[in-house]
Write a structure and sequence with these properties.
Low-confidence stretches: 8-28
Radius of gyration: 20 Å
Mean pLDDT: 87
Order of helices and strands: HHHEHEHEEEEHEE
Strand order of the largest sheet: 6-5-4-3-7-8
Strand content: 25-35%
Number of helices: 6
Distance between the termini: 67 Å
Shape: globular
Amino acid sequence: LWTGLPAAFTSFLASFVFLSLLVAESLATPVTLAELRADPKLTPERLMAYFADFKFELNRQVRQPETFLASRAGDCDDFATLAADVLREKGYTTRLVAVFMAHEVHVVCYVAETGSYLDYNRRKLASPLVKCEGDLAAIAANVAQSFRSPWRSASEFTFRNGEKRFVTTVFR
């Protein structure tokens, strides 16, 4: 198959194929919770980059972080609860916010130190954080705008040991 091709081109092609396999291998390797926790340079932006190639997969329940990471698929509450926990361990002040719209509920992780929230829907963007004031109404308005839908209510909540507890709610 490779006979008759110039040697330089054959060498280039072989290198390209090898590098492509290495890149595919690295993208296919799931990150673990331990690796996220051990990352000494973890910031909200860097955390988002870990999820750029994850698939969206709607679930009724919040997946365990290990399941979400191993499957490389999940939804907004899987991501937001994981992000809140990992970033809190790194010293960030995080808040989980659920925005209730006419036909959807969307969960984000607000990070006080950056004045922005992490949105799983923006995981593939170069600038994935959404700058926003920290009050629930402002977060709800920004999230709802991204869905082109009015918001009805927004709730801050905690998620510990598989239990969701609402802290406060605002209504539009």
